[in-house]
Amino acid sequence: MKIYDSSQNIDKILVKTINILKNDGVIVYPTDTVYGFGASAFSKEAIAKIKNLKNRKSKIPFSICVPSKEYLFEKVILSDTIKKIVNNFLPGAITLILPTQKDVLPKCLYSENIYIGYRIPDHAFCMKLMKKYDKPIISTSINLSGETPITNIFKIVKIFSKKVNIYIKDDELEQKKAPNISTIVKVSENNKLSLIRKGEIPFSDILKSID
Fold this sequence. Notes:
ten-stranded mixed β-sheet, 10 strands, 34% helix, 21% strand, DHBP synthase
C-alpha cells in the first residue's frame, strides 16, 4: 500500500481522501495526538468497517471531528459553559461529549439519545481536510479495542493493509515515543462537568475556564 506524506502534494491528497470519504471508504489520518481511523460520519457501512478493524464490541459510539466551532455550535444544545470550553480549548487535544439537538446527526453517533463526542484537532492537515470536506468524520485511534494506540504508520499498514483505502503519514507523529491522549470531558444537560479520561489538557484548567 502506498503511504502519502501529509506535508507534500496536499491538494492532491485532499481530493483523493475526500473522494474516499464520499464513497464509504476508510482512511488513516493524522491528528494532534495520534493517527486515527476516519470515515464519513453519515456512512453506516464505513462505520461498520472501522468497528471490524478495531474488533470493537462496545456499543459506545465513536466521536467525530467537525469542520469548525460554528458547525459544533449549530448542532449542540448550546450554553455559556459549552461556549467557554469550546472557545478556550478547541482546536486542541480534547474530546467534548456534549448534549446535542435531536436528529441533527446520525442516530448511531448518539449515546443516551442525546450526547455526541466532538473533536477539532489542532493539526494542519486534519484542519485542512475538515475545512475542505465540510462534514463530520469519525475520530478514533488506530488500535484493537482496549489496546494501546499504534503510533508508527508502517506498523499500521502492516496490520491493516488493503482494509484501509488511504494512509497519510505525519513526521511529527512518527517521532513521538509514546502516544498522546486527548482529554475527554462530558458536559451534562445541566452543565455539570465530568472527567471521562485524563489527557494532555488538565481537567483543572478546563474547570478554571468556566469560573
